[in-house]
Amino acid sequence: MDTERDKLIVERVQTGVRLEKRLLKVLKALAELYDLSLGDLLEGIVLHAFEGKSPFSEETLRRIADLKKIYDLDLDATASHRLVETPKGAQ
Question: Which of these ranges, 3-17, 25-39, 44-58, 67-81, has the smallest mean pLDDT?
Fold first, then answer.
């Protein structure tokens, strides 16, 4: 399937991105399910989103729904841009 000729050479950098805890758990579990690194999964999601395409098949969306239940992730797209962190010491 992937031949050496099809591969694209890129430069990757380490990043300190902060994500909501349960969201990260779902992403890590999904990456593990498909034997991908978290970085590869995120790159794929972003590249699809940049083109206005869904990165997931119906089957994968069902698996994501299951993982969201397992990790008690009740956030959806409407939560985007509204997430704030608990102030330190207020937990």
Answer: 3-17
pLDDT classification of 5: cutoffs 50, 70, 90: confident
Q: Which two tokens mark 85?
A: 């962190």
Q: Is 26 exposed, middle or buried (0-12, 13-18, 19+ CB in 10 A)?
A: buried
CB atoms within 10 A of CB 27: 19
- As a whole number of angstroms, the longest Cα–Cα distance in the chain is 54
Which H or E run includes 65? helix 58-70
CA pair distance 80, 62, nearest whole angstrom = 21
Find all residues with CB under 8 Å of 44, minimum gap 6, and list them. Answer: 36, 55
Output the CA torsion 7→3→39→22 (10° steps).
Answer: 150
Work out the number of other CB atoms within 10 angstroms of the CB of residue 34. Answer: 11
